[in-house]
């Protein structure tokens, strides 16, 4: 285990200088409440620096290689891509709404449906329970923040079913809602999330009105290979009103091997009875990625989250959901495919903090070469969260002698009427199974491929949307083929 | 079809088979019987090429070619089928997919074109009906959550799809109720033809009431101690194996 202690001053000084440069450029362009949020976040980050491995949540992942590099946001960039180039990358092809970011900046020419014109919103007929993107008239009263208490009166109906915009427009158009949500779904002491708040320059903001089915939305974050070390801090916010539905795919992909440090944060708020299918994929070979996803779940809300990591020099996702309303449920599926150059880390936390909440978590890691897959999963049943029903499962498949899988499932239970279980396994391909397939005429490589894909199948097959599931299957199969071709 | 001469097989350095000689011509069904631990499954695994089963002496040819010079998958494609005593469960590998891959691997070997999806489906459904299997098993993981009887039927289904020249069925009858036993026997009888051969490995006589063998061999302590006609199986049913394993002691004493 590497326990190299970071030199906090190097990184802090560097990011503080980026913060100052940003603040100078943006003076007067941002509302004071946001400037205050940023300054406070910068101060908190400066106090801690980048997380060190002595932080329990960062036990497996050291940012020692990130600290000394002067990653910086891109200057003016020429994108040089058109929508045709995106086709092989999309995880939700056919989505009616898509925002695309290149090296952290919104690329309007690659976005779909929401015409990102001056008023920032798409033009389509309002369609409750349809998948339309509807206009919000200027001066829309942003009162769509639903109450947390169960059975309380629903928020006044939104005039627009679905509002999707880039960060800058969202700040400008819906400042009260943005102020209400930004940073509020995150726990304390999250240095990489603080760094994001201090430096975030763009991101996706999605509001779905009560009772609306938003359909599929894809948020695509592309990193292009650059000569300069590239920093990006996308800041996303997804708010689902009471009884609404959405499928959101957050797709982080690098074109080629990029020297980048992405520090995205996604905050998600699910109103009572809201249902979200959320899928986050990261495949950024050669890059650093430290994502934070924080969810607050209202009464009887249902979250299904797929957290897929297909590659990265260091790709870590910290996923936290807070089951704050009675009857809420969260289903988490994780899949990590780590090859020789990859260090993948999934750290999850599920807070059961209300009556009769339910969680299921299944994480699978496949590791080959000198790759490393790390999983830490905490399920915390808070006092009073009676009738909690939680199950946490982690299975790891090692394809080489040098591969490493770490697993740390933890249950912390502070209530007495609960049903909780956890389990973890680490193993290799089963010799009996390999022989069975060979005895049916499949050659050894084919048998290995089939059994390795089968190991991932439980996670892949759990993606509800058939279009997304097919895209995931194709991406996973392609990556598995690469892994199996790597030297063991 | 299958000629085994003085075959010796070791597992983890321990010799289990001490010189087996067995000739199985095309068109015949032979039963290989014997008490637990006599080496019946070891013979099946060695013939199919399971890793860990080391041939330390003797030969085995399948249609005139040296079996042990070929990888297990090559033996399968050439028409050798092993029906497993304990079929493995493969969650995430669909039964239909495995069947299709297996059939096409064999067809490619024979220089035939791959079966198209529609022909495959028709063929497999016809055979599933014959084996009285629920069609939903096709989309399930291979043997995943199957009952003992369903697993054995699935082995015979695979055999019927692959149409092997030589089927070695390792205790396919164990754990079957009488109805399932009849269905499995029907599958085996369906495969019988002048151009094929079957080696039935079994502990009990009861499968042989439904699949009449041409010859019966008794294996004890890694050696064939008696070979005979179908009446030998009846005699074993009546007298057990004790009198034959006694023979072995007698042979070694001489």
**Which structural class do you get from the secondary structure elements of chain B?**
alpha/beta
Strand order of the largest sheet of chain B: 6-9-10-3-11-12
| Largest protein interface, residues of each chain | A-B, 24 and 27 residues
Q: Give the overall pLDDT of chain B as a whole number.
A: 92
Provide the domain count of chain A: 1
Shape category of chain A = globular
Record field, number of beta strands of chain B: 12
Uncertain runs of chain A: 1-6, 114-149, 151-159
Number of helices of chain A: 9
Tally of extended strands of chain A?
19
Low-confidence stretches of chain B: 248-254
Shape annotation of chain B: globular
Q: In oligomeric terms, what are we looking at?
A: heterodimer
**C-alpha end-to-end distance of chain A:** 21 Å
What is the percentage of strand-forming residues of chain B? 25-35%
Major sheet of chain A, described briefly? 19 strands, mixed
**pLDDT average of chain A, as an integer?**
88
- Helicity of chain A, in percent? 10-25%
List the helices and strands of chain B in order.
EEEHEEHEEHHEHEHEEEHH
> Radius of gyration of chain B, rounded?
18 Å
Walkthrough of the structure:
The complex is a heterodimer of chains A (488) and B (254). Chain A has one domain. Chain A is built from 9 helices and 19 strands. Chain A has a 19-stranded mixed sheet that branches. With 488 residues, chain A is α/β, with parallel strands linked by helices. Chain B is α/β, with parallel strands linked by helices and 254 residues long. Helix content of chain B is 37%, strand content 28%. Chain B has 8 helices and 12 strands. The chains are: A alpha/beta (488), B alpha/beta (254). Chains A and B meet through helix 7 and helix 8 of A and helix 2, strand 7 and helix 3 of B.
């Amino acid at each position: 285990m590497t326990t190299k202690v970071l030199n906090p001053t190097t990184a802090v000084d560097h990011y503080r200088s980026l913060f100052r440069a940003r603040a100078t450029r943006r003076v007067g362009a941002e509302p004071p409440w946001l400037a205050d949020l940023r300054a406070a976040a910068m101060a908190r980050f400066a106090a801690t620096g980048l997380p060190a491995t002595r932080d329990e949540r960062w036990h497996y992942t050291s940012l020692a290689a990130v600290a000394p590099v002067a990653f910086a946001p891109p200057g003016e960039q020429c994108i040089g891509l058109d929508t045709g180039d995106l086709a092989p990358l999309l995880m939700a092809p056919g989505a009616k709404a898509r925002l695309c970011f290149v090296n952290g900046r919104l690329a309007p020419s690659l976005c779909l449906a929401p015409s990102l014109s001056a008023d920032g919103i798409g033009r389509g007929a309002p369609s409750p329970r349809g998948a339309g993107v509807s206009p919000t008239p200027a001066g829309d009263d942003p009162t769509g923040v639903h109450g947390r208490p169960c059975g309380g009166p629903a928020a006044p109906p939104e005039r627009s079913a679905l509002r999707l915009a880039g960060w800058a427009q969202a700040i400008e158009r819906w400042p009260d809602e943005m102020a209400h949500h930004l940073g509020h779904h995150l726990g304390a002491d999250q240095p990489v999330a603080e760094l994001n708040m201090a430096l975030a320059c763009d991101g996706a903001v999605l509001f779905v009105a009560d009772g609306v089915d938003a359909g599929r939305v894809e948020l695509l974050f592309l990193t292009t290979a650059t000569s300069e070390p590239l920093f990006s801090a996308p800041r996303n916010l997804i708010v689902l009103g009471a009884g609404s539905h959405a499928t959101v795919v957050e797709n982080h992909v690098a074109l080629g091997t990029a020297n980048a440090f992405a520090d995205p944060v996604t905050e998600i708020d699910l109103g009572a009875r809201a249902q979200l299918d959320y899928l986050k994929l990261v495949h950024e070979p050669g890059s650093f990625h430290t994502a934070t996803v924080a969810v607050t779940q209202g009464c009887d809300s249902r979250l299904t989250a797929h957290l897929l990591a297909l590659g990265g020099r260091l790709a870590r996702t910290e996923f936290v959901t807070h089951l704050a309303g009675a009857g809420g449920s969260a289903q988490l599926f994780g899949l990590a495919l780590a090859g020789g150059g990859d260090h993948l880390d999934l750290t999850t936390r599920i807070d059961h903090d209300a009556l009769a909440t339910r969680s299921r978590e299944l994480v699978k890691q496949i590791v080959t070469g000198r790759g490393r897959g790390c999983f830490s999963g905490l399920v915390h049943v808070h006092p009073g969260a009676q009738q909690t029903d939680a199950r946490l499962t982690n299975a790891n498949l090692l394809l080489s002698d040098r591969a490493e899988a770490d697993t740390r499932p933890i249950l912390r239970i502070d209530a007495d009427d609960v049903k909780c279980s956890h389990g973890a396994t680490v193993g290799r391909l089963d010799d009996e199974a390999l022989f069975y397939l060979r005895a049916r005429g499949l050659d050894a490589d084919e048998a290995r491929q089939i059994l390795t894909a089968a190991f991932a199948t439980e996670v892949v097959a759990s993606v509800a949307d058939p279009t997304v599931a097919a895209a995931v299957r194709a991406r996973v199969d392609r990556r598995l083929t690469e892994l199996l071709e790597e030297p063991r | 079809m299958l000629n085994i001469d003085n075959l010796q097989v070791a597992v983890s350095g321990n010799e289990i088979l001490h010189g087996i000689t067995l000739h199985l011509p095309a068109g015949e069904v032979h039963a290989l019987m014997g008490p637990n631990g006599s080496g019946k499954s070891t013979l099946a695994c060695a013939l199919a090429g399971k890793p860990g089963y080391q041939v330390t002496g003797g030969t085995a040819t399948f249609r005139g070619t040296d079996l042990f010079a070929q990888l297990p998958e090559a033996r399968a494609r050439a028409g050798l089928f092993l029906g497993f005593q304990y079929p493995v469960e493969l969650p995430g590998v669909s039964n239909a997919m495995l069947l299709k891959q297996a059939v096409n691997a064999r067809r490619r070997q024979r220089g035939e074109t791959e079966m198209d999806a529609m022909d495959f489906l028709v063929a497999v459904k016809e055979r599933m009906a014959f084996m009285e299997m629920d069609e939903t098993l096709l989309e399930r993981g291979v043997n995943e959550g199957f009952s003992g009887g369903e697993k054995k039927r699935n082995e015979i289904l695979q055999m019927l799809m692959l149409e092997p020249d030589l089927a070695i069925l390792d205790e396919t009858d164990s754990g079957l109720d009488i109805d399932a036993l009849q269905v499995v026997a029907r599958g085996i009888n369906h495969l019988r033809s002048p151009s094929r051969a079957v080696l039935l490995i079994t502990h009990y006589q009861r499968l042989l009431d439904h699949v009449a063998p041409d010859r019966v061999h008794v294996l004890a302590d890694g050696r064939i101690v008696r070979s005979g006609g179908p009446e030998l199986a009846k005699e074993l049913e009546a007298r057990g194996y004790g009198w034959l394993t006694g023979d072995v002691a007698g042979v070694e004493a001489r």
